[in-house]
Amino acid sequence: MLSPFPLKDFPSISRKLKQTTFIACKSISIHHREKELAAVKINVADVDIIANELELDKKVAERTLREHKGDAVAAIQHLLR
User: Fold this and answer.
1) Are 62 and 47 within 8 A, CB to CB?
2) Which of 5, 17, 34, 72 is deepest in the core (most CB within 10 A)?
3) Which of 15-19, 21-25, 56-60 has the highest mean pLDDT?
4) What span, in angstroms and rounded, lies between the C-alpha atoms of 4 and 53?
């Protein structure tokens, strides 16, 4: 039986399929990471202090604090690098 795709197109189709699969996996990974970060308990006072003292947007302070599992000292050290 003949393939609906000419064999000369196979590398192109294979490459596109790999790219699509990679993008889908990356999207799932990002979504999973965002859920993990949202689950981290943080102190709102820490967000306010970091944002005010380092003159940052509160969203940046909150994200950094979540990335460091609520550890304000580690978050500040990361921001000051």
Assistant:
1) yes
2) 72
3) 56-60
4) 63
